[in-house]
Each structure stands twice: as structure tokens, then as C-alpha cells.
Amino acid sequence: MRPIRLGVIGLGRAFMLMRPTFVLDERVALTAAADPRPAARARFAQQHGPAFDSVEALCVHSGLDAVYVASPHQHHLAHVRAAAAAGLHVLVEKPMALSLEECQAMIDATDAAGVALIVGHSHGFDRPYARARAMIETGRFGAVRMVHAANHTDWLDRPRRPEELDTAQGGGVLVSQAPHQVDLVRLLVGSPARTVRAHATGWGRAARTESAYSALIGFACGAFASLTYGGHGRFDSDECMGWMGEMGHPRDPADYGAARARLEGVSPEAEAALKDARTFGADEAPLPSTPAAYNHFGPVLVSCEHADLRPMPGGVMIYGEERRFEALPAPDVARAEVIDALWAAVREGQPPLQSGAWGMQTMAVCLAMQESARSGREIALP
């Protein structure tokens, strides 16, 4: 087997979360990287391969098959264009971009180059949601009528740079977190979103952005979905998931409030430094152990005509004529589902589900949520 030779654009926090997958999945070889920080480049060169201070230099590096674009949101378009111009397949982090015009330009660039564009990682890749969708497609539970998704985290209690707390600069949970929830709900319903009605707010240090939202999405098939996200770290919905964390590792309930306590009295400058300390080149933590379960994004309940399905970290709970749990085999590598999609596109020529068009549709819903919350009206999607 010839692994996919992968280049990385941006060695920040997103790469830190995906790095265990890239290192442990034998279908991928971390080959080269680009990042403006000398410390990050030096560490990458020591552990994986050459690292460059420009994206252009990375993209002309010989032997690459694909790049993972994990740079700040506002740079995604330029970096996808550079990769496509070099004939490289692209895996771009969510959010795909900050406008639909940028999303379309990314699709146009990769289509013109004849390369694949995959948008992720989002939790829409997670195997329990895919398994629930496969169950729905059998038809034995009837059509999807309603989905409820809720997630409450300590998003606001984690170190943030100032722009992450400013909607005008692309910050807030409607950009950073809603794509996860929208992706998985769209997957489960299996129909185009048609209308969006949302409320969003921010308080405390999130007064300039959205730290919480609720939305109602109507789909072409007649189904609807309610989405709720709260990022203030008081109630933690991992409690409803058997204290299994978002990344598939057990949580200790005794750690309640620990993230908030670490930021108590910290200046914005010191907080930005704490954020940087969690990026590649600064954080010397070893690779985490194999997860005990699959990633998740909080409690999700899918109401079909003949049963309710609840995707969980270890499988899918089915509430039909009887209550039963369909377990999935434990994961060998965290987020291997992303590599499944990348491998199928790069090595087998299969169009990905989470394509550029898929990512653009997700962003259309997220931007409609933002507009609905701002205007107080329902937004119709094209």
C-alpha cells in the first residue's frame, strides 16, 4: 500500500487535534508543512519532514499527493487555490470559508484542476452518525420526521485569541461550532435544508460574538431539526454521554470548572499566549492514547416514523418495538473516518460525501442562522 503523502498548511490547534490520526493511520504519511512560526517548523522537520515558511514553497514540494488546510479561516481560499494550482487534492478544515462566494471560488479552483476537495474534520464524519444514517436508508424505521441535537461545552472557557471572540473577524460559535452540528443533522435527515429560524447571543467576555444559539431548520422532505449549542461551560452535556468526551476519551466529573478556573484573572495577552501554547511546536505533549470510543457532538435524537435512533460514542441506541443497542467495534485510530474519505477520493477516485458542494451547503445554513438571529426573521435557503 502506498500511503497518501500529505502536506499540512498551518500547524495550529486544528492540526494538533488531527495529528494523532495522521501519525497512526498507515494510509497517510506526514510529509511536509508550512507555518509562519519557526518553532513549529523546526519541530515538524525534526519529527516528520521539511517545513516551509510559505504555502507556495510547500505546494511545489515534490511527491505530495494532498494537503490539509488548517490555517485561520480567512486564509482558506488562498491556500486551497495554491494547492489546486499545484495539482494537489485538498482536505480543508471547517468552516470551509467565511462567505458563500469564497466557498464557490474554492470549488471552482479544485474543479478546474481536477482534484478532490473534502471539507472536514467535522463531526459529520463520526461513525455513529454514519451508522444511524445507514440504518435509516434501509427503510425499516420509516422516514425521518424530526431531529434534536444539543451540545453544551466549555468553549468559552478555553484560551481564545481576541478575533475568536469577535463576530466581525470570523469568531463565535456560529462559525466555529455550528458546522459540526449542521453537518451531522444534514447527514441524518438526508434532504436539502430549506428554511432557518435562529436565535443567538453572547454574554460575559463573549459580548461581541455568539457563544450560544438555538435554531430550527426545515428540510425539503418535510422533516425539521432543532439545534442548540451553549459554550459557557456550566452544564456539560458530556454528562448525558456517560462522561465520554467529544474526542472519545473518558472525562472525570471532578474536573468540573477546571478550564474556567485556569482563565480566572488572565489578561487577553496572557490568554493568547495560552492559546499559542496549545499549538504544535509549543505543546510537547505526547500523542494521546487510542480513544475508548468514537468522537461525538453531544446528545442527538433522530425520530423516524417507526423508531427513535440515538447515536452514541459506542454505537446506536434504537427505541422501536423494543429498546436495544447496536454496538460498533471500538476505534483503532481516532477520526479514521476522515482518512476513509481522503483515501477513497485520492486513491480510488470516489467523489467524497463531504465535498466542496456539501461544505458550501453547510455554510449556507450557518450563515442563515447568523442572519436570522440578527434580523429576527426566518431565512429561506436557495
Give a concise summary.
This protein is an alpha/beta fold. It has twelve helices and 15 strands.
Q: Explain this structure to me?
A:
- There is one protein chain.
- The protein has 382 residues and is of the alpha/beta class.
- It has 12 helices and 15 strands.
- The protein has helices spanning 13-24, 38-47, 55-59, 76-85, 100-113, 127-137, 173-176, 178-189, 258-263, 268-276, 336-348, 356-375, and strands at residues 4-9, 28-34, 51-52, 66-69, 89-92, 117-119, 144-152, 193-201, 212-219, 224-230, 300-304, 308-312, 315-319, 323-327, 379-380.
- The chain has a 9-stranded mixed sheet with strand order 14-13-12-11-7-10-9-8-15, with helices on one face. It has a 6-stranded parallel sheet with strand order 3-2-1-4-5-6, with helices on both faces.
- Helix 5 (100-113) links the parallel strand 5 and strand 6 (117-119).
- Helix 5 packs antiparallel against helix 12 (356-375) and helix 6 (127-137) runs parallel beside helix 8.
- It is globular.
- The mean pLDDT is 95.
Give the SSE layout.
Elements (H helix, E strand, L loop, with lengths): L3 E6 L3 H12 L3 E7 L3 H10 L3 E2 L2 H5 L6 E4 L6 H10 L3 E4 L7 H14 L3 E3 L7 H11 L6 E9 L20 H4 L1 H12 L3 E9 L10 E8 L4 E7 L27 H6 L4 H9 L23 E5 L3 E5 L2 E5 L3 E5 L8 H13 L7 H20 L3 E2 L2
Summary keywords:
382 residues, alpha/beta, 12 helices, 15 strands, 33% helix
Shape category: globular
Strand order of the largest sheet: 14-13-12-11-7-10-9-8-15
Radius of gyration: 20 Å
Sheet with the most strands, sense and barrel status? 9 strands, mixed
Give the termini separation: 43 Å
Helix content: 25-40%
- Helix count, DSSP H or I runs of 4 or more residues: 12
Number of strand segments: 15
Q: What's the quaternary structure here? A: single chain
Judged by helices, strands and strand pairing, the structural class is alpha/beta
Q: Any low-confidence stretches, pLDDT <50, length ≥5?
A: none
Q: Estimate the mean pLDDT confidence.
A: 95
Fraction of residues in β-strands: 15-25%
Order of helices and strands: EHEHEHEHEHEHEHHEEEHHEEEEHHE
